Amino acid sequence: VLENRDLQDAIKPQEVEFHSLNFNNTLHWQPGRAAEAKATVYFVQYKVYGQSTWQNKEKCWGTQNHFCDLTDETSDIQEPYYGRVRAVSAGIFSDWSLSCRFTPWRETTIGPPTVNVVHSNKSIMLKLQAPRSPYRRRRGSTIPMTSYYDLLYQVFIINNLLDEQHRVLVYEGKGKVIKIEDLRRGVSYCVVAKTYVPMLDRSSAYSSRQCTML
Predict the structure, then answer these.
(1) What is the pTM of this model?
(2) Ranges for the Fibronectin type-III domain (predicted)?
(3) Distance between CA 44 and CA 85 in Å, rounded?
(4) Is 42 in contact with 65 (CB distance < 8 Å)?
């Protein structure tokens, strides 16, 4: 019995937590210290905070992965959720490992906008597109993150003559088409952008660089 108890503790999943980007909500965990990769499988359940019964996640019932996509199960973004995981190895079941409470609207990471550059003689035109959630409208199109948050775009320009790390904020607002003017011809410029959520005081990572020579 003691050996079984030791094995139960040794295979118990560690660090169970939700990772979330634009409401793509995935439960992650680390294997226990003695969990052999091939011999250990995992079982995942989830529930809304306050509910008494746990729901099985069928696609992650006996999985060898160390993650489980719960995007569809956590689609009510204002609700707080829990996930939990247990491991089985050599017929021995570990105890459940519980995540912290997870509320998608409050905790998801919002991605940067997509940036497209169109340039003319002394200006750069940018077209910005909000990141999109995994959820769909009735007609099938994915719902942009602007439907869930009051988002601002922050646009930065990098003059490659000066310093590649020196980003100058040239625009902040909700516009989807931005014109940056009075630039020098023959100079290479790069543009990056962020989304900013004033209500949560949170910024995305930078978008990938879009560079152009005027």
Answers:
(1) 0.86
(2) 12-107
(3) 5
(4) yes
Enter the CATH code of domain 1-106. 2.60.40.10
Q: Where in the chain is the domain with CATH 2.60.40.10?
A: 1-106, 114-213
Choose the CATH number for 114-213 among 3.90.850.10, 1.10.287.470, 3.40.50.2300, 2.60.40.10. Answer: 2.60.40.10
62-to-8, 14, 42, 67, 188 alpha-carbon distances in Å:
16, 17, 5, 12, 53
Locate 105 and state its tokens. 């609207």
Span 77-115, pLDDT tens digits: 999 999 999 999 888 899 999 999 999 999 999 999 999
Number of neighbours of residue 205 by Cβ within 10 angstroms: 13
Contact 98, 17 (CB under 8 A): no
CB 130 within 8 A of CB 145: yes
Helix (H) / strand (E) element for 3: namely helix 2-11
